[in-house]
């Protein structure tokens, strides 16, 4: 019998603007992208994506930004988002890593795939049983990470989500 490994690691690179859906032309008149929100719900991780969106666009300066990591206690479920703003980035590119147990991987995959396929700026969608890019993003050993272009020391900020 053939054994198949299910993808449990996901690595995505998209524009920050893809995390929300605008429902009008007024500032702040948006909601979190439904597909992405559902993927996080499958993980059982609650993240203030509107707060992260506002942090990125309203508070973070160019050449700064950290990695925000959310991990569900008593679980392997992880969501990480890198909000570092490169000096020459005009598309507001972000990296994200999602790690989950194989039992929910198919549901998470479906929602992430829908999110990525609908994104305005599709750069990377990677799914694997073990993604070196996703694991590298959440590797605490490499932080603080000196960003040569700006001199900024990027940190990883861990948040535990109660089970």
Describe the structure.
This protein has 163 residues and is an alpha+beta fold. The chain has one domain. Helices cover 27% and strands 28% of the residues. The protein has four helices and ten strands; from the N terminus they run E-E-E-H-H-E-E-E-H-E-H-E-E-E. It has helices spanning 34-43, 49-59, 102-118, 132-137, and strands at residues 9-15, 20-22, 30-32, 67-72, 78-82, 93-99, 124-128, 145-146, 153-154, 156-161. The protein has a six-stranded mixed sheet with strand order 7-1-6-5-4-10. Helix 1 packs antiparallel against helix 3. The longest helix has 17 residues, at 102-118. The radius of gyration is 16 Å and the shape is globular. The protein starts with 8 loop residues before the first strand and ends with a strand. The model has no long low-confidence stretch (mean pLDDT 92).
SSE topology string: EEEHHEEEHEHEEE
The helicity comes to: 25-40%
Q: Which percent range describes the beta-strand content? A: 25-35%
* Main structural class: alpha+beta
Shape: globular
Total helical elements:
4
Which residues form runs of ≥5 with pLDDT under 50? none
Quick recap:
The chain has 163 residues and is α+β, with helices and mostly antiparallel strands.
Structural features:
six-stranded mixed β-sheet, two-stranded antiparallel sheet, 163 residues, alpha+beta
Secondary structure blueprint with pairings:
Elements: E1 9-15, E2 20-22, E3 30-32, H1 34-43, H2 49-59, E4 67-72, E5 78-82, E6 93-99, H3 102-118, E7 124-128, H4 132-137, E8 145-146, E9 153-154, E10 156-161
Helix pairs in contact: 1-3
